[in-house]
Amino acid sequence: MLKRIMTTIALVVIFGTLIVPTTAEGLSLMDFYDAYHQGLPFRAWPIEIQYKFAIELPTFIEKNNKDGNLFIPQSIKEIMENRYGLPHSNDLSQKDAQAKAIEYLSTKSDMSTEQLKDLTWTYSFVINEETNPKWIITVYDGVYIEKNRLYRLAIPAREGEIALLFDHSNAELSPDKMLEEFSRSLPQNRENWTYMDKASYGDKVRELMDIVPGFNTDQAYMIYGLPRTGELSYDDALAFAFDALNKNYSGEKGWDEKRFPLRTAEFVRVSHSKDEKETPYWGFVFGEEDFYQIFVYAGPSGPKVLVVYESNNSNG
User: Fold this and answer.
1) For residues 69 and 197, is the Cβ–Cβ distance under 8 A?
2) Lowest-confidence range among 5-9, 65-69, 114-118, 201-205?
3) Which of 27, 108, 129, 187 has a beta carbon 3.0–4.6 Å from 192's, enabling a disulfide?
4) φ, ψ of residue 27 in degrees (nearest 5)
5) Which pLDDT tens digit goes with each residue over 35-56?
6) DSSP collapsed to 3 states, the chain
7) Phi and psi at residue 59, in whole multiples of 5°?
8) Terminal C-alpha separation, the chain
9) What is the pLDDT of residues 134-181, one digit of tens each?
10) Which residues contact 296 (CB under 8 A, 6 or more apart)?
11) How far apart are CA 214 and CA 32, in angstroms?
12) What's phi and psi for 259, nearest 5 deg?
């Protein structure tokens, strides 16, 4: 306990004398970073300093990387993967975020409320989605080093469920594992997912991208969603797809709805890395063993058929 108290006192003193550079002139990237942190990791800075650094960092890099040879450490790259901000009046305050975290951790830990409060806490306010900001909170038993890390949580600043990103008592769940766990709340046969189910799954992918640095940078996961204002609605997209298939693929007898019923639908906001189709788009599959798969562009410029695959053709 004494060690923890002394650590806390030392950190208060450090925070009290934290010097923020007023200019980046003549500094290397690490000089620039060191002038901020004075030995502390980014997550341990006050959120106001994180915000200031995150704003100035791109300008510094642009100014000092004109030849493309500026070395950017992985720790800096991870900072650049998120957008940092400050809470508004309608957002959860840092104090209230800690209170929610303690309430949540009380159900996961044998520690009392006072014991949890006495741990070392770090905070970041992440605004990758401006309408859905989050507090990223990490809790340590002592100084800010990995072996002392107990918990990491993502706490929505407005509404939503708390996500436990790390628990020292269990192996850390990878974001892929967390996504797999989430998918269990949806129909287990993915062919039965509605476009709303897929949008929910897409929201989870985006959430993990917000809170786990580096996740899905390779676009391994498609990001499903729902159309925004000005984009093609489900009903309009379905009607457009049906009309295109009826005109070009129905034959002399017209479209056979019994043979080719609508099987699946999806709205894709960001596709995987190997997909060259223009996004956003709606995708529909009509039929079972014999099928047509059609992709319709859903952007504000208006609908158009991107591609049609047929089961009885080599492109299917």
Assistant:
1) no
2) 5-9
3) 187
4) -100, 145
5) 776 668 898 999 999 999 999 9
6) CHHHHHHHHHHHHHHHCCCCCCCCCCCCHHHHHHHHHCCCCHHHCCHHHHHHHHHHHHHHHHHHCCCCCCCCCHHHHHHHCCCECCCCCCCCCHHHHHHHHHHHHCCCCCCCHHHHHCCEEEEEEECCCCCCCEEEEEEECCCCCHHHEEEEEEEECCCCCCEEEEECCCCCCCHHHHHHHHHCCCCCCHHHCCHHHHHHHHHHHHHHHHHCCCCCCCCCCCEECCCCCCCCCHHHHHHHHHHHHHHHHCCCCCCCCCCCCEEEEEEEEECCCCCCCCCCEEEEEEECCCEEEEEEECCCCCCEEEEEEECCCCCC
7) -65, -45
8) 66
9) 999 999 998 887 788 899 999 999 988 898 888 887 756 788 888 887
10) 232, 237, 240, 241, 244, 281, 282, 283, 284, 303, 304, 305, 306
11) 23
12) -80, -30
Is the pTM for the entire model greater than 0.85? no
What's the CA gap between 126 and 209, in Å, rounded?
Answer: 11
Handedness of CA 280, 286, 290, 296 (dihedral sign): negative
Nearest to 65 by CA among 28, 107, 19, 119: 28
* Dihedral angle of Cα 188, 190, 191, 193, to the nearest 10 degrees: 90
Q: What is the mean pLDDT of the chain?
A: 84
Is 184:153 a contact under the CB 8 Å cutoff?
Answer: no
264: left (phi over 0), alpha (psi -120 to 50) or beta: beta
| CA angle centred on 298, ends 228 and 312, rounded to 5° | 140
Alpha-carbon span 32 to 24, nearest angstrom: 6
| % of the chain exceeding 90 in pLDDT | 47
pLDDT digits (tens, 9 = 90+) for 270-308: 998 778 899 999 999 998 888 999 999 999 999 999 999
